[in-house]
């Protein structure tokens, strides 16, 4: 809980805690699931672009900025993969408490200690 004041005489309490189940509606679940779907899709899409660029390397090599575009694609793939490994399990734990206690989530929290 965070206590903030706008004036010296009035205190405002802001609670950044957990959202109660009765407050979770369609928009809440839709936003979480959309984030998960978009993250998985972006990871698959960038992986596909990397594979296509590897297979068509000799064809695209004469293009002036192909190496630069390949590096950007690899960077986007790394970022989306890390997003998939770290943020998606955290987002899924917002939906269900069972996911928060799963083995994959505990591995992300502490990779040296596997149950």
Automatic annotation (TrEMBL):
Name of the protein this chain belongs to: Uncharacterized protein
Protein origin, superkingdom: Eukaryota
Annotated TM spans: 26-58, 65-86
Listed InterPro entries: DUF621
UniProtKB keywords: Membrane, Transmembrane, Transmembrane helix
Organism: Caenorhabditis briggsae
């Amino acid at each position: 809980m965070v206590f903030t004041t706008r004036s010296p005489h009035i205190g405002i309490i802001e609670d950044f805690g957990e959202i109660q189940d009765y407050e979770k509606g369609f928009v809440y679940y839709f936003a979480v699931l959309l984030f998960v779907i978009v993250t998985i899709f972006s990871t698959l899409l960038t992986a596909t672009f990397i594979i296509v660029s590897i297979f068509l390397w000799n064809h695209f090599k004469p293009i002036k900025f192909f190496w630069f575009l390949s590096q950007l694609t690899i960077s986007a793939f790394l970022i989306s993969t890390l997003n998939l490994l770290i943020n998606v399990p955290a987002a899924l734990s917002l939906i269900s408490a069972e996911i928060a206690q799963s083995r994959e989530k505990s591995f992300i929290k502490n990779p040296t200690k596997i149950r």
